[in-house]
Structures are given as C-alpha cells and as structure tokens.
UniProtKB/TrEMBL annotation:
Encoding gene, per UniProt annotation: tpiA
Annotated SUPFAM superfamilies: Triosephosphate isomerase (TIM)
KW Ion transport (keyword) present: no
Main location as per UniProt: cytoplasm
Pfam families membership: TIM
Biological source species: Rheinheimera soli
Full protein name: Triosephosphate isomerase
Length: 248
C-alpha cells in the first residue's frame, strides 16, 4: 500500500465560469469515497462561487510574494485563505516564461504562502531545448535548490509538480518511464535537505494528462498524482481521472 495519498489538481488557467464551477462541484460531490485528495484551482474570482464540500479543496494559481500594500493587481496569501483556498500553484512554467518569474521570486512566494498557512504546489520542469541538450536534471536541481536549499523546512509542507514544458498543452505526454525517472531524481535530490520529508513528499506529474494516459502514470512508484490543465475543464473526464487516481 502506498503511503502517500494521491493528489489530483485541476489548473483551470484563465478558463471557466460560474456554470463550470457548478457542474464541476456537482460532479465531484457525488463521487464516492475513497477518493484521492482533489484540488481545484480556478481563476481566483471563481473561488468563492464553489460550494464547500469534503470531496475537494480549492487553490489559487499564483500569489504575491508581498503581504499587503501598493502592489496593483496582486493578491496576497491571506486574501486567498479568506476566499477559501488551502493551496496555491507557484512557479508554473507559464508564470516563469510569460511573466518573467525568476527562481528568487518563486522561492519568496513559497515561503510567504507556507508562512500564511497555504500549501504550495511548486512547479518545476525543463524546456524541450534543455531536454535535448541533456540538461533536464541540472535545470530541475537549480529550480528545486532555489526554493529548498536555504529553507529546507518548507519541504515538509509542500507539494512538488514536475511539468516538462514540452508536454504542456501539446498532447505530448512524458512516457510513464520518463516521468518516473525524473520524479525519482527529484525525491532523491530533495532527500539531502530532509530525508523524511522527501519520502512523504507528494510529487505529481503535469503535461497533457488525460483519462486515457493517467493510469499508467499513476502506476509508477514516485508519481503521486497529476496537475491537469485542458482535461480539468471537462467535467466527466476530470471526474474519471480522480476515480482512477484513488486506486493507484
Ligand atoms: O500546465 C498544465 C497544468 O498546470 C498542464 O496542462 P495540460 O494538461 O493542458 O497539458
């Protein structure tokens, strides 16, 4: 029996509306236990539309590294908590690539989120070019070290998500073996900071996960769930993925 409870995360990105909130919450609410931990991360404005239900938790897709003040357009960790979020995705490759988020700011965000009482889902992953240049493990080590080297206590309160950039929204998933190899590396690498925390750390996979390919991914020893974009907007498919994760 696996000691880490599987975690399935929906990242709606800049998609969805109150109708989808209703449909998703209706569908998830009737799923029978045992279930994986299910986390829905809609655009923040929809967080308060979700009815509370024991079958799922709510998260945001970003958080400010600041506590409060003159930071136009930003949302603080305390505000997310007040809106019902328990988790927050940090360092998604779209934030890194499109909004210039650097390792230093990502590291601050993780600290601020945890200090406020949110669980961060810390995203790491290599680009296609980095993979082809055989720099995958080096890039991942850098991204992980930026967060955990100076603040190893954060590890015990984090989730890590491996999202190869070349697999996001492309329909090209990492093979279960490719993903497992990287997840194993991540766990081993983080063990230098806190072996016990690394052992129980949930490392989830993201990148073109569907109801068709998720079972093979979940079967791998170090893949503890999934971070899902496109398929998380389809109520029936997302529910099916959640149901499959509970058995992994
Ligand atoms: O970026 C992702 C989740 O955060 C993955 O997106 P897709 O599932 O659409 O590839």
């Amino acid at each position: 029996m696996r000691q880490r409870k599987p975690l399935v995360v929906a990242n709606w990105k800049m998609n969805g509306n109150s109708d989808l909130v209703q449909q998703m919450s209706d569908a998830l609410s009737v799923l029978k236990q045992p279930l994986p931990e299910i986390l829905i991360c809609p655009p923040v404005i929809l967080l308060t539309d979700f009815p509370k239900h024991q079958n799922y938790k709510l998260g945001a897709q970003n958080v400010s590294e600041q506590h409060s003040g003159a930071f136009t357009g930003e949302i603080s960790a305390d505000m997310l908590l007040a809106a019902g979020a328990s988790h927050v995705i940090i360092g998604h490759s779209e934030r890194r690539a499109l909004y210039g988020e650097l390792d230093t700011v990502i590291s601050q965000k993780v600290k601020v989120a945890i200090d406020a009482g949110l669980t961060p889902v810390v995203c790491v992953g290599e680009t296609l070019q980095q993979r082809e240049e055989e720099k995958t493990l080096e890039v991942l080590a850098r991204q992980l070290d930026a967060v955990y080297a100076a603040q190893p206590y954060l590890l015990a309160r984090s989730v890590v998500s491996y999202e190869p950039v070349w697999a996001i929204g492309t329909g090209r998933t990492a093979t279960p073996q490719q993903a497992q190899q990287v997840h194993h590396f991540i766990r081993q690498h983080l063990a230098q900071y806190d072996a016990q925390a690394a052992d129980v750390l949930r490392i989830i996979y993201g990148g073109s996960v569907t109801a068709t390919n998720c079972e093979a991914l979940f079967a791998e020893a170090d893949i503890d769930g999934a971070l899902i974009g496109g398929a998380s907007l389809k109520v029936a498919e997302f529910s099916a993925i959640c149901t499959m994760a509970k058995d992994s």
